[in-house]
Amino acid sequence: MTRDSSLITHRAMRRFFIPATQISHDQAVLRGPEFHHLRHVLRLDVGDPVLLVDDLKREHSGVITHLSASAATVAITDTTAASASALSLTLAQGLLKGQKMDLLIEKATELGVQRILPFTSTFTVVQVLQQRQDSRVTRWERIVQSAAKQSGSQAPRIDPPRPFVDLFSALPTGTETLLFYEKEEHATLKTFAQTHPQLSSLCLIVGSEGGFSSAEVESACNAGAHILSLGTRTLRAETAGIVALALSQFLWGL
User: Fold this and answer.
1) Four-residue CA torsion sign, 6, 9, 13, 19
2) pTM of the model
3) 48 near 94, Cβ under 8 Å?
4) Collapsed DSSP state (helix, strand, coil) of residue 100
5) pLDDT tens digits for 117-165?
6) What is the distance between the alpha carbons of residues 151 and 214, in angstroms, rounded to a whole number?
7) pLDDT tens per residue, range 192-203
8) Which is nearest to 215 in space by CA: 176, 161, 165?
9) I want to staple 124 with a disulfide (CB 3.0 to 4.6 A). Which of 104, 108, 120, 130 is the partner?
10) What are phi and psi for residue 58, nearest 5 degrees?
């Protein structure tokens, strides 16, 4: 059955990530795990349309023109800047136990976060040994790529875990920062949104299972963060991060 690529929108095309260095003029060569996924998992063939997303935040529409044992050659027919949310959204998340961190990273990617900053704080139970940080970040990057493919979101940048005290120096100037604290009784995301109807850059700070110490909350406040509650219910740490992202995209993003 012949496919009419002109009828297939970007959203319906299979997405693959590719380094910009593997694109030359109107031709791209897909190798490695992405080629394996294209050829051996999805079983795409010559003539199938694909959408390539490079690390310069460009999207390339194209058609597979050649397949070898280790690579797919794609003829590029159109290149555009990848669509992005009106809101630059960062999630600073206290490290979570077990697979909860994996789940949080997956859902954060689906919700269009652009950067994830894992951190350790006073009550964080999970500690990532320095020698294991690279492998942990590599694992999270694989999760991000898979979630970005499925959702059509951009793959967010993931930083190595850092101490809470170093968090604020990692944020660009001009970023509004919200820290969600279970003991905050008055200020909420709703009241904050009423006084900030438009935002272009936002960082959400969500603690680990143990929450924050009062000293950490005070230091965040001194650094300019707004201390807010997510409501009267006590949410699990991974739920709080997902809810905060979803509400922020609803209020200020797309």
Assistant:
1) positive
2) 0.79
3) no
4) helix
5) 999 999 988 777 777 888 889 999 999 988 988 888 888 999 999 999 9
6) 37
7) 999 999 998 999
8) 165
9) 120
10) -115, 150
